[in-house]
């Protein structure tokens, strides 16, 4: 299930049942949807009712695993890795009919449009997903003592910005009517909004910090992953993911190289070349839009050094005193 989109602001814990969307601060410059601010974060206006509904009604199971991320921070890869790892007994990575060979990773996780009955019928352990900031996640997930686990992946803000901008341009092109060109959306426009925190689920650095702080308080409940570290050591991070989800690789599986097989199945090259990901659509964009480069540092091909320095300074100032820093290792952060 996708618990909808999405700090440290205390109002994030408010009851959202009586939320009056039209009364919230409005941002109209961030396509493809207008944004509204709630609890210190900006949300796509059409999805705010789903945010409120998920917070009010969703009941987590102790065995649930929630995959969380700021948009365009490694979400597709994390979903694929989690699916292949958690369900490897029923679907070995080398299986020719593996779900990931037949369906886009996002289609292998229930969407926010799934009804309560659909979610209730899912067998345990359920694999769920969200872009919500930590303070807006349903209390049945975050309450101390709840068995549900959270896996969060973060990414350098500059790469998240560029990936989000390029993805948005593809969505605008897909939505263009009668071969009319999509409305221009420049990197400069995206940059100014992003620096001000005005993007879906932004500010990005506050989104990341909320989950990082939760992982420090409850490391047994929240696993905090860094996209760049996953790229450097994908097999090691898959082992960490498996152990955290309660399905560590056995001695026999290690000897057979199953962790390596999971990584290969979920690699960018493998996924992007599958027929299902060359065609079809997902959430108003072509499936192929979810598979671009999958690298770190591509921001340098789209942003000037001056832009990068400005964003780095904004993030550094915002995080000062928190103990968290992008680029730091998990041990030193």
TrEMBL record:
GO terms for biological process: sulfation. Residues 62-323 form the Sulfotransferase domain. GO terms for molecular function: sulfotransferase activity. Its EC number is 2.8.2.-. One of its GO terms (cellular component) is cytoplasm. Pfam families: Sulfotransfer_1 (PF00685). Keywords: Transferase. InterPro entries: P-loop_NTPase, Sulfotransferase_dom. Belongs to the sulfotransferase 1 family. This is Sulfotransferase. The lineage of its organism: Eukaryota, Viridiplantae, Streptophyta, Embryophyta, Tracheophyta.
